[in-house]
Amino acid sequence: MPNILIVEDEAKMQRLLQLSLAEEGYTTRSASDAEQGLRLLRQEKFDLAITDLKLPGMDGLEFLQTVKRTDARIPVILMTAFGTIETAVQAMKAGASDYVLKPFSLEEIKLIIKKELNVLRLQEENRDLREALGKRYQFRNIIARSAKMQEALAVVDRVAPTNSTVLLGGESGVGKDLIARAIHQHSRRSSGPFIKINCAAIPENLLESELFGYEKGAFTGAVSAKPGKFELADKGTIFLDEIGDVPPSIQVKLLRVLQEREFERLGGTKTLKVDVRLVAATNRDLRAALEQGSFREDLYYRLNVVPINIPPLREHKEDIPDLVHLFIERFAGEAGKSVSGITPAAMKKLMEFHWPGNVRELENIIERAVALTSRPQIEESDIRLDLSPSIAPKELTSSGVPFPPEGMTLEQFEDEIIREALRRANGNKSQAARLLGLSRNALRYRLSKIGVADEGEP
Ligand SMILES: Nc1ncnc2c1ncn2[C@@H]1O[C@H](COP(=O)(O)OP(=O)(O)OP(=O)(O)O)[C@@H](O)[C@H]1O
Ligand SMILES: [Mg+2]
Fold first, then answer.
1. SS3 124
2. What does pTM read for this prediction?
């Protein structure tokens, strides 16, 4: 039974949270200020903490920072009054797992807590399982030798048979499509349809009718009725790709489908019920869209029930050799060529590249190499890496310093630089800190924020 710490000075609110969390089967302990909260944390084991931002004495932000300094693992959710969104952003940067703007519904906070506990439990279980059994997750056509991909697949394995909504995140070309299909194939709906729709590829005025269908005469040109993707996906899975690009007018309708599983066709009056499982994907930072107000918060929480983040290829280079062999086999077969391997020098070149286009880029490069070569082994000269992006002038500021690549936030850029420093220092944290001009503690803090575990060096 998860144990939750509530830090809230307002007695009525505190009581309300206690009651509704007890209803969900959680045990709770409450504190009416941060100091008392910290005391409780030292005395007891908690799975999660929620705290008000404005508290007498030490405020919620300081509380959060203190908690993160002592135990970076425990998720902390911040509650803040409407109008202090900037503080909320600050809180996320300080390591809050999530925040809710007051006034919020109890439904909303329960959903967030459930999600955080889920993530935590999955992480712990994965670690235990891997350690105890050396269990490896295997899915057809998915290469996942690396720990990072194994972690993602472990979540896929757990979540596929349920009906939970899944939100896949990750840069372009990391394998979101592949994972979405795997979720469907390993679900109880696998004999039902898998319907994909790319929300970014369809103009706003057509997207609605694509999703929900239309009745005859709904608009000029609607000469006969047509079912939408949701209807077609009945008893199966609908995969909404690039969900971050759905315009607000349609976000409202999606929210309703997610909540009630019902909708009407365009121009129709009959309410249709469907039994669909939703998998959504985005290569954008939906959080940023939330903060800008271009993505609805309520929809975000409905979608983000089980988040799965697929790492960029540069973070799991151990998978490159297997991927290369898979792609050689695939393209040699398709082209009817007898290419069967790759020279060590060619492989080294692939291992050293930073792969901005991820697995898709690797796949394209192998396809080209197989097409080009006339020998049984791919050689270094068959590999034509696209080196231009890393030296394109538009990626530099006017003073010649690198600028974050398109689609990358400043924060992601910083994280990447921190990871790079660690690589250059061969994992030595003191040296990495020196490279960055940070104190060791400051580096350690930032690493814990981006989920790089401290291996407990002295
Ligand atoms: N782990 C993997 N094992 C084998 N093939 C992979 C893996 N990851 C990706 N691929 C292959 O790489 C290509 C790109 O993957 P996919 O289309 O799933 O990426 P994506 O994340 O959906 O990209 P985008 O954001 O551009 O839509 C596909 O051909 C896919 O089969
Ligand atoms: Mg895709």
1. helix
2. 0.65
CATH of domain 3-106: 3.40.50.2300
For residues 403 and 413, give the distance between their C-alpha atoms in angstroms, rounded to a whole number. 9
Which residue's alpha carbon is at the smallest distance from atom 23 of ligand 1?
Answer: 173
Q: Which residue's structure tokens are 């472990």? A: 154
CATH of 314-386, one of 1.10.10.10, 1.10.8.60, 3.90.180.10, 3.40.630.30: 1.10.8.60
Query: Which CATH superfamily does the domain covering 399-449 fall into?
Result: Homeodomain-like (1.10.10.60)
Q: Is the CB of 142 under 6 A from ligand 1?
A: yes
Structure tokens, 308: 């799965």
| 177 CA to centre of ligand 2 in angstroms | 5
- Whether 359 is in the pocket of ligand 1, judged by its Cβ within 6 Å, is yes
Bridge partners (DSSP) of residue 79 are: 52, 100
Report the SS3 class of residue 443: helix
Is the pLDDT at 394 greater than 70? The verdict is: no
Separation of 62 CA from ligand 2 center, angstroms? 40
Domain ranges of the chain: 3-106, 136-311, 314-386, 399-449
C-alpha–C-alpha distance, residues 414 and 425, integer Å: 17
Q: Rounded distance, CA 429 to CA 2, Å?
A: 34
216-228: pLDDT as tens digits: 988 888 889 999 9
Nearest ligand 1 atom to alpha carbon 179 = 18
Confidence of residue 408 (pLDDT cuts 50, 70, 90): confident
Nearest to 423 by CA among 334, 318, 315, 325: 315
Three-state secondary-structure class, residue 273: strand
The two structure tokens encoding residue 8: 């809230």
Chain centre distance of CA 321: 25
Span from the CA of 422 to the centroid of ligand 1 (angstroms): 27
Would the CB of 168 count as within 6 Å of ligand 1? no
Is the distance from the beta carbon of residue 202 to the nearest atom of ligand 1 less than 6 Å? no
Q: What is the pLDDT of residues 186-203, one digit of tens each?
A: 999 999 999 999 998 888
At 344, list the tokens: 């060590």
**CA proximity to 102, closest of 297, 306, 307, 292:** 297
